[in-house]
């Protein structure tokens, strides 16, 4: 049976991560004008390679399948609204992506290298060095990716593009990006100034809005939880 408290905490953390990275999804991203003019050395990619595209705050990952095809996980709200593959197979817009993250709906889809990278530089198999893990054979990596093609639940913390790629490449689904974010949240919580700030804000809300259950309970409960976590 799922723990409601853990689900609530997970939801809050995911929204914080989404908000902290909205710049990544915003229109007018640096790669938009560059995308049409970027040339990639596709012949240097091998089937089963991990392609890594650094963004402003996050890194996007995919598995190269050969023949200018990349399998990658993409949030897309359109998947929940229509079964028309002609519409859903089009390049995912920023709005579709953000709403897909919020709605937790995504697919592991295949795009060209150009559409996958969208003008950004590509790193190849960088995870092998950063994680210091032994990779599976490239053909096995590609086959794992192909078996997972299709719709999938999405979570910034528990099931994102990095989880997909690390499962295919190493056999274990992990996300150092999500882990790092959670560690940063822990640091903030453990900082006693966070407890003091939340207590001051709680008292201010009571003074401004009056003593009521909807103001008094959060004013007491939130600083107490932060204090206990610290």
From TrEMBL:
InterPro entries named in the record: LRAT, LRAT_dom
TM segment ranges: 196-229
UniProt-annotated catalytic positions: 161
Keywords: Acyltransferase, Membrane, Transferase, Transmembrane, Transmembrane helix
A GO cellular-component term linked to this record: rough endoplasmic reticulum
Gene Ontology MF terms: phosphatidylcholine-retinol O-acyltransferase activity
Domain LRAT span(s) in chain numbering: 50-177
Any single biological process term in GO: vitamin A metabolic process
Name used for this protein in its record: Lecithin retinol acyltransferase isoform X1
Organism: Balaenoptera acutorostrata
